[in-house]
Amino acid sequence: MIKLENVHKAFGSNQVLRGMTLEVPKGTSMVIIGGSGTGKSVALKCVLGLIKPDSGSILVDGKPADAGDRDAFLARFGMLFQGGALFDSLPVWQNVAFRLMRGTLKRPAEEAREIAIEKLRRVGLKADVADRLPAELSGGMQKRVGLARAIAAEPEIIFFDEPTTGLDPIMAGVINDLIREIVVEMGATAMTITHDMTSVRAIADNIAMLHDGVIKWTGPVAQMDNSGDPYLDQFIHGRAEGPIEAVR
Amino acid sequence: MNPLALLARIGRLALDMLSAIGRVALFALSTLSYMIRPPFYGRETLTALLHVGWLSLPVVGLTAIFTGGALALQIYAGGARFNAEAVVPQIVAIGMVRELGPVLVGLMIAARVTSSIAAEIATMKVTEQIDALVTLSTNPMQYLVAPRVLAAFLTVPLLVGIGDIIGIAGGYAVAVHNLDFNAAAYLKNTVDFLEPLDVISSLVKGAAFGTIAALMGCYYGMQSGRGAQGVGRATKGSVEAAAILILAANFLLTGVFFSV
Fold first, then answer.
1. Which of B12, B119, B159, B233 has the most CB atoms in a 10 Å sphere around its CB?
2. Which residues of chain B are within 8 Å of residue A74 when distances are taken between CB atoms?
């Protein structure tokens, strides 16, 4: 289980998280929604230790996220970044197998390559993509390679940062289905941040609405349409009128 | 302006400068610590050796040969004012080996390598590749910074040595073909005049300048702001800082090696 308790984070005078509290039960898929600049990515990066929160606690399976062996902690995670964040100097298969070629999970290059190709197949890419460079791939293919990298070491927890941003609706649907299948198949705990309501309905078990640095509403995706929360209602229906100011 | 406000502004500037020096010093110490402890990334180091060393050879060679040739012409013309044209081989040798070789190679490396490292790392930061490295249990300081700095520390002295030789060769070619110097006498004068300390100082300067050039590229890249403007600022800042620090280090090292 991932638990954020009263997490605060400011960048200079910009207070991004103002006491965010959220629980993600083990083996479930939590989707955090909210407007741009509300701190969704910051929250994910705080859990991973990429950003240090100013105050509050973050626990993963009851243990503080910033304590203990950092490598062992990170080895439990996989992350799909918004833009893919593929290493442009490395061919696709080395991107996917990056974690398998270094550190505690290191294995022979041939074996790492085989696993990479298998993971590429899992996300619907052919083996001939393996030797191409990321710059030679389309946006949708890059997302899939990023997804293959996120699952390559079979992590217990997977984060997806706006997985469908910039993709056409068909490719977005493919990615959503892949995410759902993979999370169910691996039994992983997933945290996704997105603006895309189609993704929310496809991926989520539970959702959390983040606004102004705090969680305004959280609950099962099935209750989302009848939540009675004015912030969530305005967001899911894309209305300009409501408690969320359209001009921020 | 209110004198107190002026004083406060000067104080703030001084504090900012000291804080920047402190950050760079900590970055350098951290880099050093990652260079000497495992894991070592052999492939990344080899790639950096290729980029910093081998691929810089044409730029270094061309810079050195033109500089050596121009130096010979200048010394000949200047020496002619007091009948000292014969000192061309000696002054070309000492000028190239002690000063122009290391400084010009250092500045060319700052232009070519520092900018490239800063732009590459800054782009990686902007596109979240640095964050991706961390989530893949790889320390960016160890994976990106240490190999580049180590490669520059090892290869720039070699580039300086090669630049010195090519520069002297440029002076030789101009002196022998244009200024009617005797080829054998030119070479003998060059070899006789140079001392081991001249060559040692040249190579030490090369190691120092290479380290500065790579460190500044990595530091500014890692500190880059967001977007294309952030990458541009990081690249510009890295080259400016590297060039100034190389010239300052040259002055200090020249004092250390040759102060009377």
1. B159
2. 134-137
Cα gap A134→A194, rounded to integer Å: 23
Contact A86 B129 (CB under 8 A): yes
Chain B interface with A: residues with Cβ < 8 Å: 39, 47, 124, 127-129, 131-138
What would the pLDDT profile of B82-122 be if each residue is shown by its tens digit?
888 889 999 999 999 999 999 999 999 999 999 999 999 99
Token pair for A183: 């999370």
> In angstroms, rounded to a whole number, what is the distance separating the alpha carbons of residues B40 and B88?
47
Across the interface, whether the CB atoms of A86 and B39 are under 8 A apart is answered no
- Contact criterion met (CB < 8 Å) for B137 and A79: no
Whether residue A203 contacts residue A162, with contact meaning beta carbons closer than 8 Å, is answered with no
Indicate yes or no: CB of B127 within 8 angstroms of CB of A83. Answer: yes
Residues of chain B in contact with residue A103, where contact means CB-CB under 8 angstroms, are 39, 137-138
To probe the interface with B, which of A96, A98, A159, A161 has the most B CB atoms within 10 Å? A98
Alpha-carbon distances, residue A167 vs A57, A82, A198, A199, B96 (angstroms): 35, 11, 13, 12, 57
pTM (two decimals) = 0.88
Q: What residue type is assigned to position B199 of the chain?
A: V
Per-residue burial over A142-163, b = 16 or more CB atoms within 10 Å of its CB, e = otherwise: bbbbbbbbbbbbebbbbbbbbb
Tokens of A171: 């490719």
Span B126-152, pLDDT tens digits: 999 999 999 998 999 999 999 999 999
- Beta bridge partners, A11, equal A14
Is the ipTM higher than 0.90? The answer is no
Residue that has been written with the tokens 């044209």 in this structure: B85
Contact A210, A34 (CB under 8 A): yes
Which residues make Cβ contacts (< 8 Å) with residue A80, sequence separation at least 6? A143, A146, A147, A149, A150, A158, A159, A160, A161, A163
Query: Using CA atoms, how far apart are residues A210 and A22, in angstroms rounded to an integer?
Result: 10
pLDDT at residue B235 is higher than 90: yes
Residues 6+ apart with CB under 8 A from A107: A100, A101, A115
Mean pLDDT of B212-225: 96
The neighbouring-strand residues paired with A208 are A32, A218
